[in-house]
Design goal:
The complex is a heterodimer.
Chain A lengths: L1 H13 L2 H19 L5 H10 L6 H26 L8 H12 L3 H34 L4 H19 L4 H15 L2 E2 L6 E2 L13 H19 L19 H6 L1 H16 L5 H15 L11 H25 L5 H12 L8 H4 L3 H22 L1 H7 L4 H20 L2 H19 L5 H23 L6 H4 L1 H17 L1 H11 L3 H5 L1
Antiparallel strand pairs in A: 1-2
Helix pairs in contact in A: 1-16, 2-4, 2-16, 3-4, 3-9, 3-14, 3-18, 4-5, 4-6, 4-13, 4-14, 4-16, 5-6, 5-13, 6-11, 6-13, 6-16, 7-8, 7-20, 7-22, 8-20, 9-18, 9-19, 11-12, 11-13, 12-13, 13-14, 18-19
Chain B lengths: L5 H23 L17 H19 L16 H18 L5 H20 L3 H29 L6
Classes of the chains: A mainly alpha, B mainly alpha.
Chain lengths: 507, 161
Amino acid sequence: MEGLQSFIAAIITLATPTALFHVAWSTLLGIVVGSLPGLTATMGVALLTTLTYTMERDTAILVLICMYVGAIYGGSRSAILLNIPGTPASAATALDGYPLAQQGKAGYAMALATSGSALGTLIGIVMLVLLAPPLAEIALDFGSFEFFWLAVFGIVISGQLTGGVTPLKGYIAGLLGLMVAMIGAEGIHAHVRFNLGLHQVNGGIGLIPAMVGAFGFAEVLSVMWRAKPVLVKTETTSDRVLPRIADLLRYKFTIIRSGIIGTLVGIIPGVGEDIGAWASYAAAKKTSPERDQFGKGSQEGLTAAETGNSAVVPGSLIPALTLAVPGSAPAAVLIAALFIHGIRPGPMIMIEQPTFIYSIAAMLVFATIAIAIYGLSLTRLFILVLKIPREILMPVVFTLCVIGPYALTQRVFDIWVMVGFGLIGFLLRQMNYPMAPLVLGIILGDLLDKSLRRGLILSDGDLMPFITRPISAFFVIVIVTSIMLGLPPIRRAFARITGSGRKEGKS
Amino acid sequence: MRYDSPFADRITAAVFFALGASMAWGGFIMDRLEIRQIHPASIPGLVPMILGVALMGCAVLLALGAEKAQRDSEDFADGSWRNLGFTAIWSFVFAVGLVSRIPFVVATAIYIAGFSGWFLIPAAPDTRGRVRALLFVVIFGAVTATAISALFRYGFLVRLP
């Protein structure tokens, strides 16, 4: 009850003309960013973070949340009209969205995507409000031993679920991220490690330059490499652009299930929206009476995918706020932004700033309302946005990739870091290494390092507390089970038994 | 373009093995700060050693499983090496060669006009079209560079490189 009151109070506090103005422009910008192939939600949040340094704390967080929600939703536009997901989160959307567009139902597909996104985010918000405070309370019992396993858990699960057909590449990406985090002064004795004689890295590799490089510059290279996308030729503006209530009622169980799946996927560290969409899509396909229509223009499939990916957004903020462990790559940037603006996410958040989680939930509500309004009213504008030539857009994006990281520290070295991570990120992507575990590794490296060594100091070098304490034991069991399930023979046996999964969704 | 092949896996496995070995060795020979009488379990090189060994293990598994590894069956359409090469080189020249050596607004205008012009001018059908494209990219580069520079310089009070 107290939580509900705080939530309503946060909504009332936020309902000022200035805040609404910020919601309006940042959500619209997010939708535009998400809808343009090559501009991802992570890139949008990272670049916008560099523009919020001078903003007031709450305003900065508000615009970043709106950018995040808008970009994840915006990805559905290009998925439906170009058959190219604007963000990886919309890959499942393209499966049914594009066939619907080819049937002349692009407007209705976008309306369903809008409704699904809005409802998915709302389900996620409810779960955020319900789950975050108790999770923060549980996290208060975490000591060094538990935080060590939490970091390992994040890397293993993220690597497992984002590594595609081979989790090994996900693990390697996570290890590379952890190694990057080892550069610079360590957190216990302030000893400088692996600086290779460069004093600029004594403080470590900056997260923002690394992420802008891995997600921004690498994406610019990928976009310019690929063949030019072609906008669907079917008439896209004459069909219905508002969803039928009957359709939404027909898919109510799909929406609720996808919302819950998406939120739960969001809670898992470093997994992200694309997995939320695929998991929701696969679950809908399994239970739907019209499963043979999936992949050929199923409205239910489209709704499930969009509800699932949008529900990940609030879900990913649950561990981000309560454990300082991001549920997705954009949430990782949000954590960095929170620190920049003087907010310390983690178990103490409900003690230090007890209303902050409700403020975030209120911001998500406003962003959701904004995407619903824009999505149902600006269909034609988004079609125009998709016509901006990449030859004009990409140099502007890269310029922002250069000046954005520089603006934070005003060091030219950070520009070089961005370029380096961009080139390495591009190569790794081409070889099917996922980027999410890499980013998660950079964020969790310090936590893992300090927690292991602190734990060993506390136990005087004894490893037993790492496996005998209840929460640690739980993490150990989950981690070992996950790794076992990643082994090829066990994976094959498991796939034979279940006969489902992400690949099925793709087929 | 996807270098997701057994050959690429073996090459990267060798690189990762070397990287892991370097990090493990770097952690092993790292100062153990005995002079500060720290707890032996908290030496700074402990986690790098573990990570290095873990990466070496993963590299071995990657190399051993390269031939039999399942791969995404999706077909990726071939892209343009020319576009990729130009984008990588021109962006590198801008970020590492031009920025901080000449005023940021000038560097940005050159970069944006050069980038857009490389693609748009040859794509024009005739001389008249090419002249129009040239004018467009010059004006677009100048206006965008000025707008971005002004936003960061005066809006966010950043001392431009």
